[in-house]
Design goal:
heterodimer, A: 127 residues, mainly alpha, 2 domains, 3 helices, 56% helix, B: 460 residues, 72% helix, 0% strand
């Protein structure tokens, strides 16, 4: 079968377990071995950096860098769809008008009460 | 006044003349002495309200706390910048201190100006050293974008202010704050007057910042070096608040109707920016958005024009200045060790740097307005005066308080608790300089608990 030999003391990944082989096509097995080789290479790079005695900084994770960049720059990947437009309207536009209506009617009601003299305004030195 | 201004100006020759080994201790000591002398401004004995009254400059209970905060912040900025500028050539370090000093000088002139045009000129003048600090000493390439946003948002907001002030000068003949407060209310009836009203306030709303025009703030705060972030968060935002509080006295009958959109933007902004804080991955960005959130409350407090609203706004400005600056210093201690602002990368620090955790804890508690700190006093006064204005604001401000508490705790738990990343080694122990920096930030905050009358503004 494949010439994959795992490192000493490491276990064989499940995809390369000979007991699982009997119903897998050769193509599938080959692709699984390639993926396992890539993963092993990445792990080796990480382990090299992790155990480097002269390292003082954090190990850089390019996936984390990409994720942080994507989180910090959402407008680059923004696409106006129905859902995003609805979200924008619901949270950005409609509340402003709703709040204007609420505050204006409340304050106008209070103003009418003051003009009619029905609003009880107790004297307070500071307010 | 001159006994503060001349020493501040002389700090520039000190920065350029001090020998290399003594540059930072000398400038630190010099600025600390200026800060201590500035505390004498707090004693307000005048009956007219204006102390240290000169031809063009004066202090009154509104501007004194902000002036003292400005003077207090310079030694803290110098202390915070010492480490990250240590690797630069000496002349660049001197230039950095000169920029900080010139910023201080313009800020003192701005807060103590009695003539509104002088305030405007100093308001614009503070932009230049800040722009240079952000774009030259920032750490990522985004700093250029941040500088452009910062400069042009503020300039675009303040050009209408210039026109409005010149119109006011034409119609009233004077722009001295000493007399403008006692002049007759202006006849403000036409549509152009409404535009004039908006022009007067737009610059300050952009500076505060108000929620709709706040985009410059996260960029500028994140990309600036630590001293830039400190001065931006602590003082430059308050320039907007101070300007609003001065100008709004003259804008009277129109404000009752025209302020509704801005109060709504401010209050909705409290909730929206607070919610955005919960989604941030970048530590400095979280602190920047929390600044927008707190300033939204301040804008709401100022625009309703009640004594408690003004008082609460001033208290919250001072308390937020100290707290936000402290949080940026803490974020910088993280950044200097890991060279990354990502929160995921700097977790579990309680196990590694437990004393710094104590400072993180106090600063986070101050940010979420824990009683009896002045942050709560300011927020509570604003919330109650907004409630008096209209009951429905309580829904927004109450939700805002809840969200503030949750993102402050989120920030604390994310950076301090939890497992340390496996690959994090060689974190320097906390320097005494960093402890001193945090103590100097939080000690005034705690002392203000004992005598809050100093920051009550006109209500004292």
């Amino acid at each position: 079968m494949a010439d994959y030999r795992e490192a000493p003391l490491a276990s064989r990944p499940k995809t390369l377990d000979p007991n699982e082989y009997f119903n897998l096509s050769p193509n599938h097995r080959r692709s699984e071995e390639d993926r396992a080789a890539l993963r092993a290479n990445l792990k080796r790079q990480y382990q090299t950096q992790l155990n480097n005695p002269h390292r003082k900084e954090l190990v850089e994770d390019p996936a984390l860098t990409r994720w942080v960049y994507a989180r910090a720059n959402p407008y680059l990947t923004f696409k106006p769809t129905f859902k995003t437009s609805l979200m924008g309207a619901m949270f950005g536009v409609v509340p402003l008008f709703v709040l204007y209506y609420v505050f204006k009617t409340d304050r106008d009601r209070k103003e009418e009460q003051i003009k009619a003299g029905t609003l009880e305004r107790k004297f307070s030195l500071s307010s | 006044m001159l006994k503060i201004l001349i020493p501040t100006l002389m700090l520039i020759p000190t920065a350029w003349g001090a020998p290399a080994k003594w540059l930072w201790p000398t400038t630190l000591a010099h600025s600390l002495v200026i800060a201590l002398i500035s505390l004498t401004w707090l004693k307000n004995m005048s009956e007219t309200g204006w102390t240290s009254l000169g031809l063009y400059m004066a202090t009154d209970p509104l501007s004194t706390p902000l002036l003292v905060l400005t003077c207090w912040l310079l030694p803290l900025m110098i202390l915070a910048s010492q480490n990250h500028t240590a690797l630069e050539p000496l002349n660049r370090q001197r230039m950095y201190i000169t920029l900080l000093t010139s910023l201080q000088f313009f800020l003192i002139l701005a807060f103590s100006a009695t003539e509104v045009i002088m305030f405007y000129v100093m308001f614009e003048a503070t932009l230049i050293p800040t722009l240079i600090i952000i774009t030259r000493w920032g750490n990522q390439t985004e700093r250029l974008n941040a500088g452009i946003y910062f400069l042009f948002y503020t300039l675009a907001g303040s050009l209408p202010l210039l026109v409005a002030l010149l119109l006011l000068q034409n119609s009233t003949g004077t722009l001295s704050l000493l007399t403008l407060q006692f002049s007759d209310p202006l006849q403000l009836t036409s549509y152009a007057d409404k535009l004039w009203w908006a022009g007067c306030l737009l610059a300050f709303l952009v500076k505060m910042p108000l929620y709709g025009v706040h985009l410059w703030l996260p960029k500028a705060h994140v990309e600036a070096p630590v001293a830039g972030s400190m001065i931006l968060a602590a003082v430059l935002l308050k320039l907007g608040g101070y300007g609003m509080m001065r100008m709004i006295v003259m804008l009277d009958p129109l404000t009752k109707d025209l302020s509704y959109p801005f109060i709504i933007f401010a209050l909705w902004g409290v909730i929206m920016t607070g919610s955005i804080c919960l989604r941030q991955t970048d530590l400095k960005s979280l602190i920047a958005y929390s600044s927008v959130s707190h300033m939204g409350l301040v804008v709401g407090g100022i625009l309703i024009q009640t004594p408690w609203g003004f008082s609460g706004a001033l208290i919250l400005m001072i308390a937020h200045g100290l707290t936000s600056s402290a949080l940026f210093c803490l974020a910088n201690t993280n950044y200097e060790r890991t060279h990354s602002r990502t929160m995921l990368l700097a977790r579990g620090l309680q196990m590694v740097l437990p004393l710094m955790t104590a400072w993180w804890f106090i600063a986070s508690l101050a940010n979420l307005a824990l009683p009896p700190l002045p942050n709560l006093m300011g927020e509570l006064m604003i919330i109650t005066s907004l409630f008096n204005w209209s009951w429905w604001t309580l829904a927004l401000t109450g939700a805002g308080t809840l969200i503030t508490a949750s993102y402050s705790l989120y920030m604390f738990l994310m950076t301090q608790r939890g497992p340390i990343p496996a690959h994090m080694i060689a974190l320097e122990p906390t320097h005494s300089r960093e402890h001193l920096l945090m103590a100097l930030h939080l000690l005034p905050l705690v002392l203000l608990m004992l005598k809050p009358e100093l920051i009550w503004g006109w209500a004292y």
